[in-house]
Design brief:
Layout (H helix, E strand, L loop, with lengths): L11 H17 L4 H20 L1 H7 L13 H19 L8 H23 L7 H17 L5 H25 L5 H25 L6 H30 L9 H12 L5 H26 L5 H9 L8 H18 L12 E4 L10 E4 L12 E4 L8 H8 L7 H8 L4 H9 L5 H5 L3 H17 L7 H26 L4 H12 L3 H13 L5 H20 L5 H8 L7 H9 L9
Parallel strand pairs: 1-3
Antiparallel strand pairs: 2-3
Helix pairs in contact: 2-3, 3-6, 4-5, 5-10, 6-7, 6-8, 7-9, 8-9, 11-19, 13-15, 15-18, 18-19, 18-22, 19-20, 19-21, 19-22, 20-21, 22-24
Amino acid sequence: MVLRSVVRRLSGFMLAMIFACGAASSASQKPPLADGAYAAFAERYFAWQFAIDPVNATFTGVHTYDAKLTNLSAGAFAKRNLKEHAFLEELLGIERQSLSARTRVDAKALELQMRDDLLQNETMKLWRKQPSMYVGFASFGVQVLISRRFAPAEQRLRDVIARESAIPNLFRTARRNLANIDGTGAEIGRGEALGLAAFLTSDVPQAFTGVRDPALRRELARSTQRARASALAFAAWLKPFIAHPTGSYRVGAENYRAMLRYEDDVDMPLPQYLAVGERALRATHAQIIAVARRIDPGKSVGDVIKEVSRRHPPAARLVAVARDDLKQLRRFIIEHHIIVLPPESDITVQETPPFERETVLAQMDAPGPLERVSTKAYYYVTPPDPHDPPQVQEAYLEQFNDFERPLTGAHEAYPGHFVNFTIDRHLPLSLTEQLVGASVFAEGWAHYCEQMMVDEGWGNGDPRVRLFQLKWALVREARYVVGLKLHTGSMTVPQAEQFFERYAFLDPADARIEAKRGTEDPLYGYYTLGKLEILKLRSDYKKKMGARFTLAGFHQALLQYGDFPVPLIRPLILGASDDGKVL
């Protein structure tokens, strides 16, 4: 959905001083007058965005609209597109050369976001194709009110009641809007609608057990029952489309290339883009075969993965070992001078809340960029369902094996998402840098961290650790290839499933999940693309710095501008050394 949708070991105090000095230095250098005009424009634009998308506003940390649900009607989209065009025209009227170098990058990043919004909402009209968009706004609109305690429980409960009360109308809007539904999209939307019904019934009341006001609880029971009924009715409405679709999930080559330009700031012919992913896939595939042979030369890669996965903690110790993983990762980062950690490096590790367990294996829950009350970070791990048969629980726990699980912690927490997002909160970022984020950077950084940590010695050279780093690299590279081929017509969903099984060594169930995801997330190759861009930038930065290069220094330079696409920040980091080659 496009609605906004160090060189040395230093203490936290010293890092805070670095950030403070950086802020003071920025303030002491008078920016051009045009920078102020752009900042005022950006403030108006984002204020409008929050008003039209209350769900995103709540997540971001703006709580003015917590009682409202985003309007997804055709009329609302028409008004939104007209306003977006007006804002874009105004932005393009700002003379870029009159801006400072950093503000020019801000303006370009915001322009790309606006163009992407218009591409998906006006040109592609995804709101006419994707049932899951509506379920997502309904479910996340409620979830975001119960997952973080930014207001008293009674107030958040009132807002939940208000949003639940708007869900039936949201699904009526969906049935009016949806005209080009693909069978896979209908299947995804139906499954998510059924999940929403279960979430509303069991998890929402559980989240507010401490609220004793009988009147509020009666209101919640009524709004929940109506919202649940509308979700079930929507699921039933979608069922016939699974066998009898009225549209296609494919976005087509022209739109795919436009999405790459606007979301990732990458403009290249699609055959060239595909070749990058296929080359990475071939290289990683050869590497994992070699590593598996080191572990057991008599077994296939899949059998080696299965055998190694059997070493895992019991369910009762899942949280404890995940907590210990983060401690060890943090210690490794400090001892190996990977990056200066942000001042607050405390993460609460706990079981995933019940209402998120259907879709979350392990996840970093960090506060939104403008959240000022509920600022605690949580690392969630989901235990197996105790009601499942023992063999099912065993298979589930294999995903938390002792070699793969810490790499998940590296991706989600240290030095991945948590470090990235927390450093952002301590930097003097502009509003644009805080609010315009690209998956290709955020996920590219986290995926890069998995490889970088093993390259730097995590696992002490144990080939079983490298095995799982490569396994996940293969999955992400397969996504890169599959995403493009699915959406340009050279691959079907069944062929995508076979591709994941053959090249990423996934079992049929996981391959099916990955293939289905690709139908609604065309650019889900952003993990690999972002990682490759960061590795190229690191190589270029090393050439620039020569003997002064340090890994920690590169990471500090990379993370100081927010989460813009890597091509946008290359000139800020490399200066005249930037050759414009991002891969």
